């Protein structure tokens, strides 16, 4: 155990950073010459398959699918019930092409389950697939036994009930499979849904809240396809090294959709549901996006953002003002790949590669009755996690990736039979993530409340403050988090892992218990 003082932060020193970046670049140059993957000697996010713009692909205009909102059923005893069926189907992702997909309660993706803070909730999941799956509630603080990680497999034809009291403040969370070794394939095949947590603190007119009209969820995922229209998940050497990348960026399961927007303030709930691609987003007419929430809930003050960078697993909520837009005016949500690639030595905020239209927004609906007139000056986020002096400090080294070797945490690949860490329940610790590799890793910790304390010793930006559940550790960077451990002791493990799903499936994951 590292028992360094709670205020100490130890970024990788400059000499070691330069040396490691040089070694990574050389190793990857050699790897690229060995076949597999595509392209230059600098492999990584910068060498991802380029995205295709819908206009260049002559994609037919189609309306944006609205994620269905499921309120569940109140059973009269104070508990709310939801039902999810994991099933196979066929979807028209590309115009005129039928693609086999997986979905929850439908052919592809899933609903948005509206949860209420403090309410007892049961979600029954039925697996109608011919393979094992799980349902992980990404971002929810729930008991380990119902977290939906690899320790809660759902066999083909079986049911699994997850019962818990909703403990999160208002937030946009999501759910997806987490069966070890098949997570990447199942997610890219269509298994992803949303969890909308309502804590009752936001007045109906304070923020846009008419689902599908001025409150719209956008699930962003990239995929590639075979000649006959199937989703291509035949992993190349490059996919295994830096994560799967597709050439089509989908929004709510559709390539190049159009959303008919109302002439008013709107709220966009953005999820990067990609397996590996870090996305940089902006609006085509330079209209600012007013960020009101990160993935774990509201931030204190709305922040105007010209661009927004989301790593896999991260979410953000933004407000956009269409009040003065003329009827028929078009604004496009543009996306490009953010930096942070293997051997590049650049931050994840650097845009690289082709910028494409993810979504066309056409303002052709009238202002809705009761629409928000202006954004709030302040918001009411859940309290951030802070660590007291003398708090226990634990270090996690993100390693590997050299010469095609798997990425690891503290030099070890995941073993479901091994407990990597035992932490006391109900305490706040400092967890330091030291990235000794040449690429960015989005890290996710299950079942805890946590807040970002520093990046290489510097305070986080305002939009990174507050509660978090997923965070990027850039190449050769040290990120320090305040982590509040689960309140109850449990021998059932919880996961911490890279959310590049190919890294997770290959073993860049550990597990901890509370005791």
Q: Any idea what the radius of gyration is?
A: 22 Å
Percentage of residues in helical conformation: under 10%
Gross morphology: globular
Beta-strand content estimate: 35-45%
Considering the chains and any ligands shown, give keywords for the structure.
515 residues; mainly beta; 4 helices; single chain; 5-stranded mixed β-sheet
Task: Give your account of this protein's structure.
The protein is mainly β and 515 residues long. It contains four helices and 32 strands. The chain has helices at residues 14-32, 183-188, 237-242, 501-506; strands at residues 69-70, 73-74, 79-91, 99-104, 112-116, 120-127, 136-138, 159-165, 171-176, 193-198, 215-223, 248-251, 254-255, 258-262, 265-272, 279-283, 289-294, 297-305, 308-310, 315-321, 330-338, 351-365, 393-400, 407-409, 421-423, 428-435, 441-445, 449-455, 470-473, 478-484, 490-498, 509-514. A seven-stranded mixed beta sheet has the order 13-12-11-15-20-17-18, with no helix packed on it. A five-stranded mixed beta sheet has the order 1-5-10-9-7, with no helix packed on it. The protein starts with 13 loop residues before the first helix and ends with a strand. The model is unreliable at 1-9, 18-47 and 342-346 (pLDDT under 50).
């Amino acid at each position: 155990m590292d028992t360094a003082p709670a205020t100490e932060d130890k970024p990788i020193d400059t000499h070691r950073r330069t040396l490691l970046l040089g070694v990574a670049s050389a190793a990857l140059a050699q790897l690229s010459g060995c076949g597999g993957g595509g392209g230059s000697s600098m492999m990584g996010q910068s060498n991802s398959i380029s995205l295709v713009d819908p206009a260049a692909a002559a994609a037919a205009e189609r309306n944006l699918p609205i994620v269905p909102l499921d309120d569940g059923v109140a059973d009269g005893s104070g508990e709310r019930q939801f039902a999810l069926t994991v099933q196979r189907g066929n979807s028209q992702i590309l115009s005129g092409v039928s693609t086999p997909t997986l979905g929850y309660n439908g052919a592809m993706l899933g609903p948005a389950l509206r949860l209420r803070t403090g309410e007892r909730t049961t979600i029954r999941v039925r697996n109608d697939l011919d393979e094992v799956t799980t349902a992980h509630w990404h971002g929810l603080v729930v008991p380990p036994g119902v977290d939906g990680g690899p320790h809660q497999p759902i066999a083909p034809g079986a049911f699994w009930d997850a019962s818990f009291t909703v403990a999160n403040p208002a937030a946009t969370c999501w759910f997806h499979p987490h069966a070890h070794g098949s997570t990447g394939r199942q997610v890219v095949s269509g298994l992803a849904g949303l969890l909308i947590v309502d804590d009752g603190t936001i007045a109906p007119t304070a923020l846009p809240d008419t689902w599908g009209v001025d409150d719209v969820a956008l699930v962003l995922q990239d995929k590639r396809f075979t000649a006959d229209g199937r989703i291509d998940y035949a992993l190349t050497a490059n996919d295994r090294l830096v994560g799967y990348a597709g050439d089509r960026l989908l929004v709510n399961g559709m390539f190049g959709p159009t959303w008919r927007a109302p002439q008013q303030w709107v709220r966009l709930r953005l999820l990067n549901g990609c397996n590996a691609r870090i996305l940089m987003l902006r609006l085509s007419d330079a209209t600012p996006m007013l960020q009101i929430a990160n993935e774990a809930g509201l931030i204190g003050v709305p922040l105007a953002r010209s661009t927004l960078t989301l790593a896999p697993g991260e979410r953000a909520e933004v407000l956009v003002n269409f009040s003065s837009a003329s009827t028929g005016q078009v604004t496009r949500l543009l996306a490009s790949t953010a930096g942070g690639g293997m051997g590049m030595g650049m931050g994840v905020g650097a845009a690289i590669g082709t910028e494409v239209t993810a979504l066309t927004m056409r303002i052709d609906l009238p202002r809705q009755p009761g629409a928000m007139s202006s954004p709030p000056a302040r918001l009411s986020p859940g309290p951030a996690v802070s660590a007291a002096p003398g708090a226990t400090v634990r270090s996690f080294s993100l390693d590997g990736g050299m010469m095609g070797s798997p990425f690891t945490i503290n030099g070890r690949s995941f073993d479901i039979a091994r407990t990597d860490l035992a932490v006391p329940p109900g305490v706040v610790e400092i967890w330091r993530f030291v990235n000794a590799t040449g690429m960015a890793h989005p890290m996710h910790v299950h079942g805890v409340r946590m807040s970002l304390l520093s990046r290489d010793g510097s305070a986080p930006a305002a939009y990174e403050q507050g509660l978090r559940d997923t965070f990027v550790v850039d190449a050769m960077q040290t990120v320090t988090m305040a982590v509040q451990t689960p309140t109850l002791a449990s021998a059932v493990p919880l996961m911490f892992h890279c959310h590049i799903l190919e890294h997770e499936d290959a073993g860049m994951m550990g597990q901890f218990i509370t005791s």
